[in-house]
Prior knowledge:
There is one protein chain. The chain has helices spanning 5-14, 54-71, 136-139, 146-160, 169-175, 178-182, 216-219, 225-230, 250-263, 273-276, 280-288, 308-326, 340-346, 367-377, 393-406, 414-419; strands spanning 30-37, 43-50, 86-97, 101-112, 115-127, 185-188, 192-198, 209-215, 238-245, 268-271, 292-295, 352-353, 357-358, 383-387, 409-412, 430-431. By secondary structure, the protein is an alpha/beta fold. The protein has two domains: 5-232, Heat Shock Protein 90 (2-Layer Sandwich); 237-431, TIM Barrel (Alpha-Beta Barrel), CATH 3.20.20.370. Helix 14 runs parallel beside helix 15 (393-406). The chain is globular, with a radius of gyration of 21 Å. The protein starts with a helix and ends in a 13-residue tail after the last strand.
Amino acid sequence: MKRLLALVLACVILLGAAPALAIEECHRVEVTKKDTTQENKSFIRRWKVDTVLDSVDEELAVIADEYVERLGPTLQKAKNNTNSNSRLDVVTRHSRTGLTWMSFLVQARVTYHRDLIGQEITSRTFDMTTGERIWLTDIFDAESEGWAILEKAVREQAAAYWPEVTPDQAALEEICQRQNLSELDFTLHGMSLVLHIPAYRLYPEKNTLLEITLMYPEIRPYMTEKARVETDNLAYYKTCALTFDDGPSRTNTSLTLNSLVEAGARATFFVLGNRIGEYDDLVQREHDEGHAVASHNWNHNNVSKVKASTMRAMVGKCDTALIAAIGIPTRYNRVPYGLYNQMIKAKTGWPLIQWSLDTYDWRDLSSKKVLWRVQQEISDGDIILCHDIKDNTPKSAAMIAEYLAEEGFMLLTIDELFAKDGVELKGDKVYYRCVDGDTSIKKK
Length: 444
């Protein structure tokens, strides 16, 4: 997929133009995947991105191919032909910000019997009109107070993983040295800069990622002028959050995650606590691929029939399961059936996230009808309700993400959606959406 030079140059022109109405041509990416079964029946899936720039494609391909060539031969012999035994997934995620910048994260994940036994990452950020690589030193100049904010975030957020375990202090000090900090893998998103640190660097034998997130409103004052322009997404795009309930589901959650990789979109997954143990590999993938993971209670039951003490005890159960999977507890919750009054009365202490646009996919609507509901009802700041256990959801997710991008929306996680307006999520309070700080139910 190679664009004409005129299309690429259009991004430069638009820097001084009115707010964007659709995805910029320089941000367009096609994503494909190739599956290979090795002689010992181990499985390799290699994802490929095709952007407007050959130079970017070639650099990312070299990184991905090196992972395949080096890690492929190390895969253990599979016991049967299913791809759950021994596999390597090399995925290149992409995300956009501003009118010309894009970030890519190449992830190589090695699993055996669905257990994550190794993970390596390499990130790149480029100006997609020139091919110039963007470094953290292009975002914060040498004297910027932003470096101190980054260091503080690394120290605090890294320590928040596996709360009962202390991270390797010597390794943490090494990471936080200015030179090493400036060389960390990072990606830029709709409303956040994320530093990616392999967990094993601070927590031996852990193979997930530590995602150190800094929201733009917190750090934009300390950025370079160019970086401020390329992170001012509220000036160019409308925003909303795509959310999924009731999972994980072995097939449909996996396929939904694939759809989000292809779209370069991040979402929020509200997972059931009693499903985390069986599907911890999917929860890990949700987290490591940049999505927010939150709670949907322990069981999908009617809380009006549950004792308050049982609901309060449930918080600890959900947190314990989530920490075991990804290292961090839930930051907010969505109540099954939206019965938040009972949760508030029980004083569970969770911020309670509702929705402002119901796709009604839970009625087993076709993907076309699910998209139609989004087309009819979407507005700035909406929280879209979907369910990743439904058969049509993988296709619906792809269609929704594509439509919203073309309509000038940028998909945010729930954390980003509220952070853009400086809204702090508080326990036992209900949130339906977020537009200009308004979190109330949307009026019809």
